[in-house]
Each structure stands twice: as C-alpha cells, then as structure tokens.
Amino acid sequence: MSSNSVGYILGFCTAVCLVCSVIVSSTAVGLKERQEINKQLDRQKKVLTLAGLMKEGQSFSAEKIQQLFQRRIRPVVID
Q: Is residue 23 part of a domain?
C-alpha cells in the first residue's frame, strides 16, 4: 500500500487516535485519586484562609494544612 493512498492515511489516523486516547484515558484514571486529594486540600486551604489562620497566597505543606485544619476547625452541621 502506498503511503499516499486514502486507506493508508485513514488507517494511520485511526491508529494514532486510538493510541492517544488510550494514553489520555489511562492517565486520567491514574491521576483521579491525586486530583481528589488536591481538591480536598484546596477546600481546606480556603477555609483556613477565611478563618484567618492562613494568609492569602501563603504556602504550607499538605501535612501542615491538614494538621491546622484538624486542630483548629470543627465542622458543625446546622439544620
């Protein structure tokens, strides 16, 4: 088959698309847990900033943020 034929071009495009979709989907599945952890950490940082325990733009390690959040913030459910 010639490299300029329609069949070759369509086959090549299909193969590239399949390989790329497998890479993207496996990366998304592999990073899902890390994304959830980062989402929770971001919420905790926002709460600490609003509570005045952290300044806007200040950076702490994930362990320090979780420690501050657990020690200083008490969740309350209001009905």
A: yes
